[in-house]
Predict the 3D structure of the following.
Amino acid sequence: MSKAFYLNENIDKYLKFMTFVRSSSPLTIKHYTLDLQQAFELDKYSRSPKNSWTEAELLGSVRQAFNHWATLSLASRNRKAATLKSFFSWAFDEGLTERDLSMQIIAPKVPKKLPHFLSVDEALAVLKSFDDEKLEVPLREKVLFLLLYGGGLRISEACNLKWSEVHLSQKVLRVMGKGSKERVVALPSTTIQVLNKWKKDSGFNEFVFGEEVLNQRTAYEMVRKSGQRAGLLKPLHPHALRHSFATHLLSSGANLRTLQELLGHESLQATEKYTHLGIDQLARTMENVHPLGKGK
């Protein structure tokens, strides 16, 4: 007979473990909480009227949940599976279950997609549009673009950026990224110049974009409008600018380790997705390097 598993108490312990030991972000904890609520049909306070569960009941509830999740995207189902695997793995490590129930969770395979990124010409077209006097674009929109494309920041990092983290004389930022991990980001001269002007003109003392954190929806809309003004064919999103930052650095000779540090990736595997190259660049490399190419 399997151990009694006290679901309410153990979910509380797990979320605290992920928050304080693993330093998961508030957004990650929010997703974990939602996934566990759905998997075990908990109320909004993550409570179940039935507190003591057997291992068979836990797995039965999870299987039922996956049936309900069948219409979700592969990526969403994969994330929920990852949450449950993490929860059950933690429970087994803590001696709360006799079997490692995470082994019973099969995550659907998500096909790898090449991240969307701008060409250098497209990035420069967006940058040029900010200086069109006829359009009267607010300077803060240019600042946001340069932090995302010039510094490779995540949208959440840019929205939360404080002036105390900006070291203009050293041309660097100290950014608090995922999992409360700090990293140093070097900025190009153009970004530094615009930040200098923005600091003088805005008069903001704490946060770069105002007296409080910039709303992420507002930031998304600012980026989308930037792409529209420049006449881009596809809608522009903040993460596409981070992808463009990585892609353009890599294609210009930066190595993966350097890129990993700049992007704040915990593993090199997360950075390797940026090793995609344009067909034109591959063709040029072939011509210049291959023994049968014209460059030889």
Summary: The mean pLDDT is 85.
